[in-house]
UniProtKB/TrEMBL annotation:
<feature type="domain" description="DNA methylase N-4/N-6">
    <location>
        <begin position="211"/>
        <end position="439"/>
    </location>
</feature>
<dbReference type="InterPro" id="IPR029063">
    <property type="entry name" value="SAM-dependent_MTases_sf"/>
</dbReference>
<dbReference type="GO" id="GO:0003677">
    <property type="term" value="F:DNA binding"/>
</dbReference>
<dbReference type="InterPro" id="IPR016024">
    <property type="entry name" value="ARM-type_fold"/>
</dbReference>
<dbReference type="GO" id="GO:0032259">
    <property type="term" value="P:methylation"/>
</dbReference>
<dbReference type="InterPro" id="IPR017985">
    <property type="entry name" value="MeTrfase_CN4_CS"/>
</dbReference>
<comment type="similarity">
    <text>Belongs to the N(4)/N(6)-methyltransferase family. N(4) subfamily.</text>
</comment>
<keyword id="KW-0238">DNA-binding</keyword>
<dbReference type="GO" id="GO:0015667">
    <property type="term" value="F:site-specific DNA-methyltransferase (cytosine-N4-specific) activity"/>
</dbReference>
<keyword id="KW-0808">Transferase</keyword>
<keyword id="KW-0540">Nuclease</keyword>
<dbReference type="GO" id="GO:0009307">
    <property type="term" value="P:DNA restriction-modification system"/>
</dbReference>
<protein>
    <recommendedName>
        <fullName>Methyltransferase</fullName>
        <ecNumber>2.1.1.-</ecNumber>
    </recommendedName>
</protein>
<dbReference type="InterPro" id="IPR001091">
    <property type="entry name" value="RM_Methyltransferase"/>
</dbReference>
<dbReference type="Pfam" id="PF01555">
    <property type="entry name" value="N6_N4_Mtase"/>
</dbReference>
<keyword id="KW-0949">S-adenosyl-L-methionine</keyword>
<keyword id="KW-0378">Hydrolase</keyword>
Amino acid sequence: MNRSLLSKQINKELIDELKNNTQVLLSFLQNQNDGTIVYALEKLGKLENGYSKEPLLSLLNNQNENIRTLSIKNLAKIGDVSLLPTFVKYARLDESTEVRRESVSAVGRLRNEKAIPVLIEFLKDNDPKVVMQAIRGLLVFSQREEVKNELKKLIDHPNELIKEVINKEVNGIQYKSNNSQKHDEFPFSLKNTVVHGDVQKILKHVPDESIHLTFTSPPYYNARDYSIYQSYDEYLKFLENTFKEVHRVTKEGRFFVLNTSPIIIPRISRAHASKRYPIPYDIHPLLVKMGWEFIDDIVWLKPEACVKNRNAGFLQHRKPLAYKPNAVTEMLMVYRKKSDKLIDWNIQQYSWDKVKKSKVLDKYETTNVWRIDPTFDKIHSAVFPIELCNRVVKYYSFIGDLIFDPFAGSGTLGRAALNLNRHFFLTEKESKYINRIKEELNKSDNLFSFKDSQPSFVDLENFIKSIKGTI
Ligand SMILES: C[S@@+](CC[C@H](N)C(=O)[O-])C[C@H]1O[C@@H](n2cnc3c(N)ncnc32)[C@H](O)[C@@H]1O
């Protein structure tokens, strides 16, 4: 039976009856199939009274591991210390790792000191999920010397999540800003500034932790006219160095959204093959290594009519191995500057009023597939559609923030930032695109509404002077 039919059959009234009457629950469980039992167990909600205890215990020998897991989960809600031996038994002996994990979680949820030795025992478990649950249970007692010492022993655990939690608990919060500026502020000389020059030279002069959000589409290796690299390795090295600098200038815990896609370098003749380069997949490990934490992958989906047709051959011959799909997607990889602070910390750095004004109140994209038509430009061959920039700016920044595009091209991101009451900082090396940025920014609704929003266009030399405060 599908879940919508189940939800009609097992409605709120029935659930209330099941959890408040032992006999009704027992007979219900005897007469239902596994799917229905799982559904009912998921819906039981709060269970402070003990009426469900006996029926739930009777399910612990069920063949179905989902049913055993959910029974343990519900038993834990009762908060009855006499269940401790039962939880310990299933934590030690059940063949299912899910049931074991849930049982250790149940031991922890008792929040009873009798559970401490058992939880310590599970710190040595082979399954990192079980260890994690044991840590969670023990953190309630983390002031006790014996617990502290046991947790410290995990500092070199092979699992990265365990290591991270223990490090935070043992060493406390590590982050100390090098920047005296408040989180919602940024250096004045970056405000609505377009610097004409090489991004790597420019970034050397940008102070640490100046930027709230970076969204960029870097050159496509040698696939377009504006970039020439001797080799793919050289290209990746260039991106790696640039994004290390972006990392340095990004504020604690803030976001970097990278738009790339695999590219193709056409074959030189029919006797040779064309070469495809999986740029997003090759950059990703470099980004993680330099301290960006992967958050999400968003797929930008374009209509098939707008992309290059690679199908003509296959359409005729239909021979396997020579299949070539039309590439209708690009990636938007979302990263956060790795931090021991939670996103809530970042939000708390803003006034209540700013948070309120930055809320995304209109219709928003709920999935990671963004269907947006590409924009074609007479001057620049690869511009961002304004809608793509609008979404990134709205979802990943607050009003008043500083938004950066190191490869600004026609400067679409700058226009989105201004329209959405943010500020921009753009760098672009080609003079023909700098002129295009001027035209683009003139289209902004907000350009003339605030005197202090006027963009300034500078070269590297003048930028350095303004950063040093000599202008
Ligand atoms: C894919 S385009 C970006 C297009 C942009 N997103 C837009 O909406 O127009 C990449 C841009 O990076 C610029 N670029 C390439 N290497 C650069 C460098 N070393 N420093 C600054 N800009 C660079 C290119 O001139 C090009 O305009």
